[in-house]
Amino acid sequence: MAEPAAAILARFSEQVLGVPLPVGIRLWDGSTAGPADGPAFVLRDREALRRLLWRPGELGLARAWVAGDLDVDGDLYELLKRVAALVWERDEPAGRTATLRRALGVLTAPGGLRTVGRTLSLAGPGLPPAPPAEEVVRRRGPAHSLRRDKEAISHHYDAGNDFYALMLGPSLVYSCAYWQSAPHTSGSGSGSGDTLERAQEAKLDLVCRKLALREGQRLLDVGCGWGSMALHAAEHYGVQVVGVTLSVEQATAARERVAAAGLDHRVEIRVQDYRQIDDAPFDAISSIGMAEHVGGARYREYAHILHRLLKPGGRLLNHQIARRPVRDEDTYRMDPFIDRYVFPDGELAPVGSTVSLLEEAGFEVRDVESLREHYALTLREWVANLEARWDEAVALTSPARARVWRLYMAASAVGFETNTMGVNQVLAVRTGTDGRSGMPLRRDFLSTPAPAAH
């Protein structure tokens, strides 16, 4: 008698991956396996299983998800937590061929796939399934060259300004908010809890206060996105702002927002690489969610350039996602799914490495604040926005692209909640030749309200 496909997959998990299924599995043939309670993977067709067998782990699962061959029944966050050790915290197999041979070896053993006849076509033999079209595979030129960085940024950020506005809300801030309290209900903005818009404004103001911005100063916003930091600093602190981004779509929207706010005389938005800025000095620099794109091999250069662009006594606020130290390495590539579908060539480093490299460049690091829990709350709000307007999001991009962002943001939320990732604001100063920092003796300045700009 033919063995149900789900039972075969359960045995594959135990014998090849070495663990029992942590979540339920429901297949197109009606068969089920794994725990009956809690969330479950739903494999819609044979292609989903072929993808998982060719690349057991993160990439195979992600490809099946993006292609629409696989879905989730139940709480997506709970499912991701249960499979984290099996997928996201597990090394990818050494090679596709070796993995396939191991899989076929198990599935064709006595009692395995051989007992179900033609079902051998689930895994092969033959070529692996083609990856979904949204996957970035071929990349031109050396990593973190000017051209390749521009292409990577375009892949991520030129997904459509309306799509990002749908997810991020009116603030158009694509970095973690700064919450006074958890939102009352995720995505609703109702009740006694904080709202995403208020929390994002609080984050922008926190950055401005850490930089001690004053009217008439000159601020460089590296990776300015849709211009939210530049607008806030110009409007509330009266500074002159230069914002740079590699995304043409972001720059277009940012300029429109600046014009609508009547701040053209204070804010200039450029499509420019930070390595090409030649009109220093600046009184302060903000880099919010940009340094993850720099790369470990280029980070010393990044730190030295920002140090050179600042006046003596000028401050840098570096807001950056971090990864926990592993294997004594200083920098880390993104996980395969994020590298192929979300942030091509992105890298995460432990916060200690970031601090050391900033100090090596000549900065004095004066304050480090972890915002890990804040990012988890923010990501859940973004996912709620996306899910609430799913049909519109799909129409603005594509079903596959919308699925990429839902999985990416939900998995990232779980990463911050479980402390496998962090995010930190590092405040550093370029001290003068006499060693003076210009910093106050105490951190009371962080509670100072924003001055009224004229």
From TrEMBL:
The UniProt keyword set, sorted, is: Lipid metabolism, Methyltransferase, S-adenosyl-L-methionine, Transferase
Which Gene Ontology BP terms does the record give?
Answer: lipid biosynthetic process; methylation
UniProt lists the family membership as follows: Belongs to the CFA/CMAS family.
- What Pfam families does the record tag this protein with? CMAS
Residue span(s) of domain Polyketide synthase-like methyltransferase: 163-414
GO molecular function per UniProt = methyltransferase activity
Q: From what organism does this protein derive?
A: Streptomyces roseirectus
What protein name does the entry list?
Answer: Class I SAM-dependent methyltransferase
CDD domains tied to this protein: AdoMet_MTases
Recorded superkingdom: Bacteria
- Is Hydrolase a UniProt keyword of this protein? no
Taxonomic classification: Bacteria, Bacillati, Actinomycetota, Actinomycetes, Kitasatosporales
